[in-house]
Specification:
GO terms for molecular function: N-acetylglucosaminylinositol deacetylase activity; zinc ion binding. With 293 residues, the protein is of the alpha/beta class. It has helices at residues 29-43, 77-92, 128-142, 159-174, 188-198, 232-241; strands spanning 19-24, 47-52, 96-99, 146-149, 180-185, 224-227, 247-250, 256-259, 266-267, 271-278. The strands form two sheets. It has a seven-stranded mixed sheet, with helices on both faces. A hairpin with a 5-residue loop joins strand 7 and strand 8. Helix 1 runs antiparallel to helix 6 (232-241) and helix 3 (128-142) packs across helix 4. It binds zinc ion.
């Protein structure tokens, strides 16, 4: 009998152990935006660090039985979501997790123009320089070759996502030895095809998205497409872990969708998508580390 051990089934050619670091705004973003990617690289032996900037205290709560946790009631949602995040990280195989500045340092700012923006610990009220320095310290310690965050619009305009972009841009400019920075995005084509497929599913408990309702990026701008088809079950488990924020539906025949508190059906697609923001793109078409030597 021959025992074959395959640590890297991807063509990772780095001479030092590959390390991936992702900067996310709230607990659940790591799973929503990059869950399949995390699961895939982790399964292939890559050291994956997730940095979460806030506890997501201002999130809307889906299960009726948990609504008293809300910011305008007991204000215990942040602590509760730490547990959800821990379960999600376990499902995805995250090697290391950190909260920016330590757990509870920065608070979810809420959407644009709400009173939570003014909270003394609101992430967007803090100093960009201070937050970028906190992230730079983590980068110097973890020494990732590849860093992932959102685009300048924060993916969909949330102030905390935009701030995560800003501090990641500043911190990665300051720290050497980072080969690539990517923005996690959603593909227009994949989203439209996925939504069209959901339209044919009779038992879908969510409302279908209207044309243009879901935030997407034109496929011509996408530089890197990561196949997560072998890791969809891990991504779905991670999404289910965030049950205050995400409802997951599976039909038992391969159909799957999730919805946030707005109840709009989002497709679970077999790839995750990235735009290379910094570094050389040669070899990066299907692998965040592709071509790095
Ligand atoms: Zn978020």
């Amino acid at each position: 009998m021959t025992l074959r051990i395959c640590l890297y089934s991807d063509p990772v050619t780095l001479t030092s152990p590959p390390r991936l670091l992702l900067v996310h705004a709230h607990p659940d973003d790591e799973s929503l935006w990059t869950g399949g990617t995390i699961a895939r690289y982790s399964a292939h032996g890559v050291h994956v660090t997730v940095v979460t900037c806030t506890l997501g205290e201002e999130g809307e709560i889906i299960p009726a039985g948990l609504r008293e946790l809300a910011a305008d009631a007991a204000d215990q949602l942040g602590g509760y979501r730490v547990g959800e995040l821990r379960s999600a990280c376990a499902a995805l195989g995250v090697t290391a997790h950190r909260f920016l500045g330590g757990i509870g340092r920065w608070r979810d700012s809420g959407m644009v123009g709400v009173q939570a923006n003014e909270h003394p610990r609101a992430f967007v009220r803090g100093s960009v320089d201070e937050q970028a320095a906190m992230l730079a310290d983590v980068l110097r310690e973890v020494r990732p070759q590849v860093v992932v965050t959102y685009d300048a619009f924060g993916g969909y305009g949330h102030p905390d996502h935009i701030r995560a972009h800003e501090i990641t841009t500043a911190a990665t400019a300051e720290v050497s030895d980072i080969d690539r920075v990517y923005y996690a995005v959603t593909s227009r084509d994949a989203t439209e095809q996925g939504a069209a497929a959901l339209a044919g599913m009779a038992d879908l408990p969510f409302r279908l998205p209207r044309p243009g309702e879901l935030p997407v990026t034109d496929d011509a701008d996408i530089t890197t497409t990561v196949d997560i088809s072998d890791h969809l079950s891990a991504k779905l488990r991670a999404l289910r872990a965030h049950s205050t924020q995400v409802s997951v539906w599976q039909d038992g025949a391969g159909g799957a969708s999730y919805a946030l508190s707005n109840g709009i059906a989002q497709p679970v697609v077999r790839e995750e998508f990235y735009v290379l923001a910094k570094g050389t793109g040669a070899g990066a078409e299907t692998d965040l580390f592709g071509g790095l030597g």
